[in-house]
Amino acid sequence: MRMYDLIMKKRNGGVLTKEEIEFMIHDYTNGKIPDYQMSAMMMAVYFRGMNKEETVNLTMSMARSGDMLDLSAIEGIKVDKHSTGGVGDKTSLVLTPMLAALGLPVAKMSGRGLGHTGGTIDKLESFPGFSVSLTETQFIENVNRIKIAIMGQTADLAPADKKLYALRDVTATVDNLSLIASSIMSKKLAAGADAIVLDVKTGSGAFMKTEEDALALAKTMVEIGTSAGRKMTAIVSDMDQPLGFAVGNALEVKEAIETLKGRGSEDLKNLCKKLGAGLLVSIGRSASMEEAEDILQKTIDDGSALAKLAEFVHAQGGEEAAVYHTDLLPQASLVEEIPSGQSGYIRHIDTEEVGIVSLILGGGRETKESEIDLSVGLVLRKKVGDYVNAGESLAVIHANDPEKLRQAKERFCTTYHFSEEPVERPAFIKAVITGNQ
């Protein structure tokens, strides 16, 4: 078998077999196929596409390119959640304690933030002492004991994806449905969960800008997971404005805690309940989404989800007192309101730009080596559909550097767009896709 022949086959619109895909991924991961040939293949796939069978085979080959986490020592049906990323996306901080409070084993691998989107691990490290550097044994023990553990992705988890993504990033071949879906799902399948819920974002702050593209990606990933024997659900949710009000690591942790106390953003709470309900229904723990959402709401009402968050933070070396006393979390030295320059109804928020404002303040990474400031960010006062008077606060910025604060304020003032007429608030949940569809 020769890579040259496979490139030509796909270039001419042919369908790659399972064996051909396995050969290609195995030899590329092991350095036997050079970058220039794989670049040619990625471009051929970009223009010719892949059918459902090819996409599943590509995903499984990438998942098996390194370690496949064995979670068989964990009792019960292991559940996991993945978000395609967005601004202010702190759903894991709210959802995973709710699920664990119901006795569901949450075994999750998460990543760090890069660019304008935040990472779950960075947010969790806002708790003083918190560590995601768990051994596989510690990871499994924590899930069995308290029903929840989150650790960083290991270097040996789907290494083919790491190599391929780096290549696609510099060859303009990122934006292809099969390649995006296989990249996400190869890591999820390698992580070993039995049931997975996907939060696929759409809008100005998301990778998938249109609802049509987000829906197609969600359906493709559900099909892949179902073909691999996993219980799958996907929620397509709005990212045309930040999720909740807080953007920035410690600020988002505070909002997540408020949500678990029964306060905070309704959008955030409702999305977490919808994601959790999808999991409960998929594994047969509930007969309907509505019933499942009621079950999840009870973990907030009775305080069990908040208690589980504290237990989880303590188990991974963090200061659990910060769950109950959020002033123990990192705090910025400069806090300043941003007034609106005009009156009107908020028509649109450039969500990606809001994320970049947090990045400017030091709350995100421009490169993987960048140091981040866990205390900085912003808290929105107004969102789409709200009316604001000129001079009224749009947001509060938290900063530690006066020059960064100045730059961030200047950038933020371009993110809000107004209308003289009332604006309808956008539907937050766009679609629910299950493995049965």
Automatic annotation (TrEMBL):
The reaction(s) this protein catalyses: thymidine + phosphate = 2-deoxy-alpha-D-ribose 1-phosphate + thymine; 2'-deoxyuridine + phosphate = 2-deoxy-alpha-D-ribose 1-phosphate + uracil; uridine + phosphate = alpha-D-ribose 1-phosphate + uracil
GO molecular function: 1,4-alpha-oligoglucan phosphorylase activity; thymidine phosphorylase activity
Pfam family of the protein (one): Glycos_transf_3
Entry keyword annotation includes Transferase: yes
Gene Ontology CC entries for this record: cytosol
Domain Pyrimidine nucleoside phosphorylase C-terminal: 345-419
Any one GO biological process: pyrimidine nucleobase metabolic process
UniProt superkingdom: Bacteria
EC nos: 2.4.2.2
Keywords (A to Z) from UniProt: Glycosyltransferase, Transferase
Cross-referenced SMART domains: PYNP_C (SM00941)
Family in the record: Belongs to the thymidine/pyrimidine-nucleoside phosphorylase family.
Subunit structure and binding partners: Homodimer.
NCBIfam families: PRK05820.1, PRK06078.1, Y_phosphoryl
Purpose: Catalyzes phosphorolysis of the pyrimidine nucleosides uridine, thymidine and 2'-deoxyuridine with the formation of the corresponding pyrimidine base and ribose-1-phosphate.
PANTHER family named among the record's database cross-references: THYMIDINE PHOSPHORYLASE
The protein's name in its UniProt record: Pyrimidine-nucleoside phosphorylase
Naturally occurring in which organism (per UniProt): Diplocloster agilis
